[in-house]
Write a structure and sequence with these properties.
The chain contains six helices and 18 strands. Strands 11-17-16-15-14-13-12-18 form an eight-stranded antiparallel beta sheet.
């Protein structure tokens, strides 16, 4: 039992200062790039507006504001012609650089015929778009790193999923420091937990054992049994996390890359994405593609558990923390750098910060709880005999 501090007369009030008035600066993943390479325009609702995504005959993916600057028609309902997107209303042709390249019925294109564009990155089978309210180009030192195993014959294809969630982006990012929820929500014993924030990267180091009382039951006693998870998960910028995972079974180990990414539709809604690839190791007991699909389904179940929490919780700017909670305020200070002008980024937002959480007390309590659960399950089974 934990120590209870003496009663205080003052009641803690929840503070909610409202959602930020801007969307985060940084690279945001829009999903698998292949779906945008079918020669058709695609509508994407992001950053509080409608975008059009299209691939020209040169193979380059472009992202523009969806509304034509001529008369306001929706370019995402238009047609890709060569390297331009043609407006469905009057056939004005817009290039990936945002300039109108041609008006078939006009002798010349107005000098001011320009529209908003978003820099793109087509890498590892994924499409990224750079958002910056100040309009600055993406700095080279913040480029998304290459993903080990992606698009390699020795790894599986991407198993990808996207869902729309009614919440703000900070709720998703808060999980980086939330050690305790792994036990209560995801069925893991966090045996090791550490955070490192530096520059535009926030990393979580996690080792976890499987909760015996929540482990999936198998009718086959010889089936592989998952024992623990070793994870190094890093957000590169405000919305794209690469998680290098090793799943340790009693018979083999499985190396996996898990992607946790999101982009905001508006202040209160986002698209949450997950992607998984698995190394095709000869030690695996079955086809790697099948295992990857099963892992993807398992991760989705974990996401669903988080989503259920996000659906009903309130936004809280002054969370009341105990000693065994992670560095929530430090993470939010790191996260704030993406919502202010570059000139207003402070050293405390980007300076290196490390924090290793002592899991001794939580593990003692949680093992006792699991023992009680297992004893109750055994007693219930004996009564049925």
């Amino acid at each position: 039992m934990g120590i209870v501090e003496p009663e205080q007369e003052e009641i803690r009030q929840i503070e909610n200062n409202g959602l930020p008035a801007r969307f985060a600066r940084g690279w945001h993943c829009l999903g698998l790039s292949e779906k945008y390479k079918d020669g058709k325009p695609h509508t994407v609702q992001a950053f509080g507006q409608k975008l059009v995504v299209f691939t020209g005959s040169d193979g380059i993916i472009n992202v523009l504001d969806a509304y034509c600057r001529h008369m306001g028609a929706d370019l995402s309902t238009g047609t890709v012609k060569g390297n331009e997107i043609a407006c469905p209303f009057h056939d004005w042709r817009w290039g990936g650089d945002g300039r109108c390249k041609d008006i078939p019925y006009s002798r010349r294109v107005p000098l001011r015929a320009r529209t908003s564009t978003w820099p793109t990155l087509d890498q590892d089978g994924l499409l990224f778009v750079w958002n910056d309210p100040e309009g600055n180009p993406p700095p080279e030192n913040q480029k998304i790193p290459r993903i080990k195993g992606a698009m390699s014959d020795t790894w599986t294809k991407w198993f990808w999923n996207e869902i729309v969630v009614d919440t703000s982006t900070r709720e998703v990012v808060d999980n980086v420091v939330d050690m305790a929820h792994f036990f209560y929500v995801h069925g893991n014993f966090p045996t090791y937990f550490k955070n490192v924030f530096e520059g535009h990267v926030a990393t979580q180091y996690f080792d976890g054992d499987i909760r015996e009382d929540m482990a999936p039951e198998s009718s086959d006693p010889s089936a592989p049994k998952m024992m623990k998870t070793i994870s190094v998960a890093s957000y590169f910028g405000p919305s794209f996390m690469i998680d290098e995972l090793t799943y340790v079974y009693d018979q083999f180990e499985m190396d996996t890359i898990f992607i946790n990414a999101h982009y905001p539709i508006d202040e209160n809604k986002l698209v949450l994405m997950s992607g998984i690839i698995v190394e095709k190791s000869p030690d695996l007991p079955a086809d790697a593609e099948i295992i990857a699909a099963e892992q993807a389904a398992w991760v989705l179940r974990g996401f669903a558990q988080d989503v259920e929490i996000w659906k009903s919780k309130t936004r809280i700017d002054n969370p009341l923390l105990c000693e065994e909670d992670g560095p929530v305020y430090q993470l939010r200070r790191w996260y704030e750098q993406f919502f202010v002008d570059v000139a207003d980024v402070k050293p405390e937002m980007t300076d290196r910060f490390e924090y290793e959480l002592d899991t001794t007390r939580p593990m003692e309590s949680w093992h006792q709880e699991v023992a009680r659960q297992m004893a109750a399950r055994k007693a219930a089974a004996e009564q049925m005999v």
